[in-house]
From TrEMBL:
Pfam families referenced in this protein's UniProt entry, alphabetically: Ribosomal_L2_C (PF03947), Ribosomal_L2_N (PF00181)
Keywords attached to this entry: Chloroplast, Mitochondrion, Plastid, Ribonucleoprotein, Ribosomal protein
Region (Disordered): 1-36, 208-249
Name recorded for this polypeptide: RpL2
Naturally occurring in which organism (per UniProt): Coccophora langsdorfii
Keyword flag Ribosomal protein: yes
A cellular component term, taken from the record's GO annotations: chloroplast
GO biological process: mitochondrial translation
Length: 249
């Protein structure tokens, strides 16, 4: 992937505003801590079903909402463009097809598991036929088709888990691109804030009114097993059994 392949401006027809939750649920309670702020983002509509998208790769594009890159596809039949998840080694000018019945190792071609050869790396797998792809969508993700029966196909996921899927389930050939995303290091504190990561303050650095670990003369390590700001154990309840005292003399 060369720098010249990347497109600067996204498709206006495929972007929309999306409100961030800042780690709060539908009741307004924080369920994921230390999230909020961050740079403004526009959500890109991506074809995750991969039922009808086919055409020529116009170029690649950065997506602020995910670790993978996007490939912009131009369909010469209806003169429309849309996005798909970009696998590795995809190049500008390549032809991408959906619902392909070829059993080859066609990169970025989407097809049912029935038409995918065993031992082939795949990504963007749907849980059931006709649904959006839910699994193996992050950068560098892929699974292997290990075996197939008349109605089912077994896939080894990136986590090492083995799962069976319906043979009509849609999947895409190839490995998700931008495989070096996990090696990116944040250059400064502001970089984390751009991503929506807020600072984390240790309990032992607080006052006693703010946290059970707070207070004390000088630096302390808490003086008790780790607890939450509300006094609940963070590492589980104590499991050590105390010895019974010998009362007999």
């Amino acid at each position: 992937m060369t720098q010249k392949q990347f497109l600067e401006k996204p498709l206006k027809s495929q972007i929309k505003a999306r409100k961030t939750s800042s780690g709060r649920n539908n009741k307004g309670h924080i369920t994921s801590w230390h999230r909020g702020g961050g740079h403004k983002r526009l959500y890109r509509e991506i074809d995750l079903k991969r039922k009808h998208t086919q055409g020529i790769v116009v170029g690649l594009e950065y997506d602020p909402n995910r670790s993978a890159y996007l490939a912009r596809i131009f369909n010469p039949d209806n003169k429309k463009q849309n996005y798909i998840l970009a696998p590795t080694s995809i190049q500008k000018g390549e032809v991408v097809r959906s619902n392909s019945k070829r059993r080859g190792l066609d990169n970025a071609h989407s097809k049912p598991l029935y038409h995918i050869l065993t031992g082939t790396p795949v990504h963007n797998i749907s849980l059931r036929p006709g649904e959006d792809g839910k699994l193996l969508r992050a950068s560098g993700s892929y699974g292997y088709v290990l075996k197939k029966t008349k109605n089912m196909a077994q896939i080894r996921l990136k986590s090492g888990q083995y799962r069976w899927f319906d043979i009509k389930t849609q999947a895409t050939n190839g490995i998700i691109g931008n495989t070096e995303h996990r090696f990116i290091k944040l250059k400064k504190a502001g970089h984390a804030r751009w991503l929506g990561h807020r600072p984390i303050v240790r309990g032992v650095a607080m006052n006693p009114v703010d946290h059970p670990h707070g207070g004390g003369e000088g630096k302390t390590s808490g003086g008790r097993p780790s607890v939450t700001p509300w006094g609940k154990p963070t590492k589980g309840a104590a499991t050590r059994r105390l010895k019974k005292k010998n009362v007999e003399i």
